[in-house]
Every structure is written in C-alpha cells, then in structure tokens.
Amino acid sequence: MSVSQQADSLSNALQQFGLTEFRPGQREVIEAILAGHDCMCIMPTGGGKSLCYQLPSVIRAGLTIVVSPLIALMKDQVDSLQARGIPATLINSTLSAAQQQQRLQEVAAGKYRLVYVAPERLRNPRFVDAIRATPIQLLAIDEAHCISQWGHDFRPDYARIGQFREVLGGVQTIALTATATPRVRDDICDVLRLRKPKQFMSGFARPNLHFGVVQANADREKLEQVGRFLQQQPGAGIIYCATRKRCDTVVEYIAEQLHIPVGAYHAGLLPEQRRAIQDRFMNDDLRIVVATNAFGMGIDKPDLRFVIHFNMPGSLEAYYQEAGRAGRDGLRSTCVMLYAYQDRYIQEFFIDNRYPSRELIQQVYEFLQEIDEDPIEMTMEEIKTALGLSVSAEAIGSCLKILARTRVLERLEAGGGMARVCLDSNLPTLVDLLPREAKTQRTVLRALEQMVGDRRGEEVYVHPDALSRRTQLDRKQIQRALRELNKLEAVDYVPPFRGRATHFRRRDVPFERLGIDFDHLRKMKEVEYERLNQVVGYAQSSLCRQRAILRYFGDTSADNCGQCDRCQRRRGWPQIPAPATAAANPTPGQSGEPGQTGSPSGNDRAVGADQEADQAVVCAGDDPLVLAALEAIVDAVRRTHGRIGKQLIAQFLCGSQNAKVQKMGLTRLAGFGMLSDLRQADAVEALEALLHAGVLTQHEVTRNRPTISVSEEVGQGREVRTALARVPLDRSLAEKLQAIGRRVARPQQAAQQRMGEQARREGQEASPAPAPRDRHRVDPPPQQQRDAAQGETASDFTWTIMLFRQGADWGQVRAIRRMSDDELAASLCDALAAGRALEAKWIACPQDQTPTPGQQRVLRELRRRRAAGLT
After folding, report:
1. How far apart are CA 1 and CA 3, in angstroms?
2. Which is it for strands 705-710 and 728-730: parallel, antiparallel or unpaired?
3. 3-state secondary structure 646-670
C-alpha cells in the first residue's frame, strides 16, 4: 500500500468511527501496527488507546483478539462498534454455555473483526482450539500493566498471555496501558516476547488537571475540607477511600450535612447494588460516588470535574490512573489527595494481607487437606474462624490465591447465586406427600419438580429468583418452605454459596513440595512497600506535582505544570480559573493568583477563589522575620536527629516540662522553648506547613510512630532558606512567627556587629551595625550618605559582601540592607570595579526560579570581567 493509499484508508476508517482527526500519538501507533510492528503503547486514561487497535482491525483482513479484564468496558466497546456497523463480539462469563459455543462458531466462521475476551478465557481449551482455526491479524492487550509482576495490579492470568501468543505463532501484538514505569514496560515486553517493539508514550501529561495535596490528619478535618470544597465546586466527581467503612462515613456526611446526591460503591455491596449506583451516576442522578478502588475502571464519564483521594492510595500508578478519570473532556478539573501520614498503615495492612507468612499459608493448606468435601464450600471468614486465627479474611484469601498458583488446588468461580437441588424419588410427584394445608410448601415443591424435569436423582442448579418468579412468592416465604421441604428424605436442597468454593486436584502433595517461591513473594512485598514510599514522597515533596509523577513514569524532560498547589505556592487546593475551559496548552502561571477551587462567582474571579482566604495566606519569603523563625524551627528539628514525632517536637519547641520531654533530655537541646509564646496547636500548624512544603519529612523508625526530620533534598544553609521562602502560611500564624523571628534575630545582629568591627580592623570604613531602636525590631545598618559623583561607599559593598559570606541569599541581603534589586546589583558591580572578589553562587537562584534583573546584571558583569581577564 502506497503512502497516499494508506492516508486515504486511515481517513476513511476514521470517518467510520465518527471522527475527523487523530488525538496526539494515535496516528503514529496505528501506522506502526499497519507496518507490522509489535507495539508498547502508554497513553493516559481517556487518551484514545482503543482506537489504536480498532482502526487497524477495520482496515486489514483477519480477526483482532482484545484481552480486557473489564466486562463492563467490553460491552460498552462492542455496543459502540456494532452501532457503527463494525462486526464485533465478546465472550465472557455473562453468556450461557450455549451462547459461548455459538459465538465461538461464528468467530471461526469469520463473522467478526474484533472479539473481546477476559484473560482467563485464554486458559479454555475449547476457545484456544476455535481460535487456532481462525486467521488472526492482531492481539491487543488492554491494561497491560497487569502482565508485569512489578506492576501495581499483577494478575497471574495476564502472565500467561505470552504462552497464548506463542500458541498462535507469535501473532502481532500491541500492549496498552495508562500507567507503566520503565521497569514495568520492559517486563511486559519480556513476558510477551515481543519482537523489537515500537514503544510509544504520548499525551502522558494531563495539562487540564490541577493536582494538590492537603495535609489533614484526622477524618473530621478531612470531612470539613471536603465539605468546603463541594459547597463551592460544581459538577460531578469521585471520592476514593481506602476502606468500605470510610466510604460509608463520607457518604453519610455528604448526604446529611451537604444534602448532595451521593452513593457508595464498594465490594461489600451486591453486584446489582453496585450496578445501580454506577447507572445512576452515569445518568447524572448522583453527583458524587464515594468508592474504593473497585470503582472507575471502564467508566466513560468525560465530565468529571474532580477526583479526591480521602486516603492515600498504595502506589503512584494507582493514583495517576484514578485521578486521570477527571477531566476527560479536556476541561480543567481538580485532583487532590487528603494526606495523613497515618493513612499509610491502612495500605501496609493491605500489603501484609497480600503477602501472608509461610506459616499461615501452610496452616490453611493443611486444614483444607483434612476436609473430605469436594468442592469445599467455606468462605474465607469461615476458614479463619475454624482455624482460630487473629488474621483478616483477606489474608486467608491471599493464602488461597498463592496455593491456587501451584495447580494442586483451584478456586472455583462464584456460583452466581445458584442453589443446588436433588429430587431423589421415582414417584410421579412428591407434592402428594405434603398435607393439603401446607399450601406454600406444595407450591414451591411443584415448581422445583417442573424445574428439575426428567433429571430426577441428579444435582440441578436453580436460581432462587427464578423460583420466586415461578411461584409468585417472595424470598422469605420460599426460604421457610424449603427448610421444611428439606426434612423430606427425597428432597435435598443446598442454598446458594455466595463465595468461591475450593477444589483439590491432588490432596497427597506435602506442603514442602508445592514449590512456592517465598523469596519471590518477599521481593514482591518489598516492591509494594517501595511503591507506598513513593506515594508518601510525592505528598511530602516540594516539586511540581505533575512533574514528580511524570518523572516517576520515566519522563525526565517534563517541565513544571504551573498550576498545581506547588507551582501556585498554595497549601493544598489548587486554584482553577473561571470559567472551566479546555486547557490544551497551559503555560506556567496560567492559573493566576491562588484561590481555593470551587464554583465561579464572578467573571474575573478564579473558580471558588475566596478573596478573604487569598488574603489570609502569605508566603514566608515575603517577611524576613517569619523566614528567620522558620529557619530556627528547622534548626531545632535538625538537632533532634529524626528521633521524635510531630507532637513531641511541638511540645519541645513550646517548652513543655512533661515527663517524656524531660526523660528524652529535650530540655537541654538548643531550641527548647523557642515557641513558648505560642500555643502547641500553633507549633503543630507550623510543622505541618513545613511538612507540606517538603522542608520536613516523616518516616518510620518504629511501627505506627512516624518521626520528623529535615528533608534530604532541602540541604542546609542557603538551600533551606530558599525552600523556606516558598512556604505558604496562614496570615494569623505568620504574625505570631514575626515575634519569634525578632527574638531569634538578636544573635544574628550581634554577629553583624562583629563583622563591622572586623571590617574596621581591616582598615576599611565599615559602618557598624547599630543597636536596635527597640527590643521588638531589628534594623539593618543605616545607609551612609552617597556622593553622586562617587556612588556607593566602599563600606557599603563590604557590608553586603560579608552578608553573602555569612550565607544570606539575594532576597535576604536586600531585606537586611533595605535595597532595591537595582541598588543591590549596583553595590556588587561597584565591588567588582574596586577589585573585590565575588562568588557566582551568591547571585545564583534555584533552577525553578528566574533570576531577577539585578542578578542578571551582576552575572553579566562577572562573565564580562572573566572574559577580559580582569578577575
């Protein structure tokens, strides 16, 4: 096919999908497939991954097999394709055996271009045999991160796709995912045995998403934060919680306190309940869904305006995938994590449950070996109770999953609510055995006989709903009747088992010979803990939020987004301009002045920007006294060497004399009582602001006891002052810290006086630092009068140089000397002209900031003098 012919084919096929142009990255992937290459495709949620394999399937002859774990997504895509006249079908557990067999025959006959299947279908011999006889052009694997053992959602059935691919003769393959680190991408390619795959990572940044992290330690504080946000923020959204209990708590608060239509979605609900919640949300009957991570995969609701994580997720992969469900229509949306360090213990609990101990796995295995039944119909809770263990039911489930991988036993699929009945009698009817007044029992038994038909003596599966429809009785009436009918010798009724039964293939294998790789399980557990640490690091980092995420996924060239809470120098909730518009190419600073996200209330106001709130937040770098106070707090924390937690540090700073402070010897440390004029709650607030800004960090030395230390990325001296200058504070707290700053500045003032004396001893006319005018104020030395012809005196630039040598940065020297940017630049240029040596690091600024005009002037002068050989 020529280039022009291929272009025409692509254009025609695009029209068949109702589209006029490709999204970024789609065309390159499609052309690579048409050229016969295996592909590894990374695109964000809502980025148009499905078109990358659907369109080639329309252009080329043959069948495309699409592997997807999401039944709901399969149905949506198949319905959409069929509506456009593209022959597609699905084969999954929602179909009866007869329907599945018919679909397989139709696939073999070449009736379809695409067939969607779940990964476990690839283990079915009948399916594999039918597929082998069909010309296959492409194998498309959605959610491909499930293939990798290093991925955040590893599934053993996915790991077998590589073998299935080889059975098909190494058919051309495309693996697609929205979240995969470089390590995961390499593992996917290795497991699938792809041949020199073309790798595409496009549109991974989401410029319309405004990320933020809100420090909130207690659930009550989190609910208040959510409440304030939802009262101002229009539109639909998802709130993710770590547990079912928290889902219910948040739903109750939103419904009763805010009166907003909301629903809960988690694994504790029946399938029909979850389906109803999803349908109501999609139909806009519910504005908000509060869910565990069970919700969202395959949900195509493009107008979600926010995704809030009430608890931290277990990995950045999960976070970006879940947060990425917001704003799929291209409009600006909010993605905020409510961060509390103690939430990591929830995720640690989940990790420990996923990787139970060798001893627990052995206990479960040997217990099941002793049970004569087959299959064994015991729930995880029942196994736990029978063993008398204090572990969770989820840990028992993990034991069963690990044991199932040995192929000695298997977990059967849930019975789908089917009951089992056996009528073991040759009598024409058993109804005559019942008294005539037992009308309900007679009605139920007559219905059972009709459903069993000629299969007397066999175990027949019936659904209680079908029995209810046939008898026109409700479930409670039927259950009471069945309890009585079970007393008849000829009737055996087993109610539905809602769990997954366990079937032994071999009972004679000792535990030691199962071949479980416990070293591998240990490594996988360590990987999951490292992923959790990455989430904590993200929450505490001072980096741009989106840039930090993109770096994690291997995009080292990513720039600051300009619109997250870090880039806006806000605390938590990023500001979104009003009205919400598409943000295809946002630029840094596009978001305007910080303001809390919410609904617009004026043409020139940011969405939800509360003007009073804006005025109540200040930047520490705007006030040298506040900066000095924060620096003193950081120095005090550094002296504790990461041994104590936030509350104890607050007590230490406030001068508490309680037993624990004295026992640990904190009263002898410099910094003890430096915040004695403040309440302990104020000290905690200051520490939380420093934690949120990434200046301080939390980590665990003892389980459940996080301690605080100075972040490694902050460093010391000038670096810490640069980081502190960006810390946002509530104005009321900043005003309290000013008094602390005045007090801690006095020793610095004495040092300035000593510098002046040193300058005089060197024979220069240095002006000494004056005494303060009052005990609450520290002034810089008075400016000497300048002669217009001479400019600044030598003593002036000597004083400036000494401040730089003491570690002050450009902004601090300006504040102390009370100079403008131009005046400070002129002072340093005069110093150069007088032959004084300057260090470039004094003038340099952090990489994420632009040098001031004054700094640029001095740097130019330094370069000019070096080029001329004058320095």
Report:
1. 7
2. unpaired
3. HHHHHHHHHCCCCHHHHHCCHHHCC
Q: How far apart are CA 82 and CA 475, in angstroms?
A: 38
CB 408 within 8 A of CB 505: yes
Torsion on CA atoms 264, 270, 276, 279, rounded to nearest 10:
80
Q: Is the dihedral of CA 638, 640, 641, 646 positive or negative?
A: negative
Helices then strands, counting H and E runs in the chain, come out as 34, 24
d(CA 13, CA 9): 6
CA distances from residue 68 to 109, 158, 406 in whole angstroms, order as listed:
23, 10, 24
DSSP 315-365: -HHHHHHHHTTTTTTSB-EEEEEEE-GGGHHHHHHHHHHHS--HHHHHHHH
In this prediction, residue 761 carries a pLDDT of: 54
- pLDDT tier, 595 (very low <50, low <70, confident <90, very high otherwise): very low
The confidence score (pLDDT) of residue 808 equals 75
Beta-bridge mates of residue 11: none
Query: Residue ranges of the alpha helices (H) in 125-218?
Result: 125-132, 156-159, 161-167, 182-192
Inter-residue contact 188 to 41 (CB < 8 Å) = no
| Cα separation values, 242 from 90, 268, 290, 344, 539, Å | 32, 13, 10, 10, 16
Dist. CA 169–CA 167, nearest whole Å: 5
DSSP secondary structure letter of residue 709:
E
What does the pLDDT look like over 542-586, one tens digit per residue?
789 999 999 888 887 788 999 999 888 787 799 887 654 444 444
Domains detected in the chain: 3-201 (3.40.50.300), 209-346+530-610 (3.40.50.300), 348-415+501-527 (1.10.10), 419-494 (no CATH), 618-738 (1.10.10.10), 780-867 (no CATH)
Write b or e for each residue in 128-139: b if 16 or more Cβ atoms lie within 10 A of its Cβ, otherwise e: eebbeebebbbb
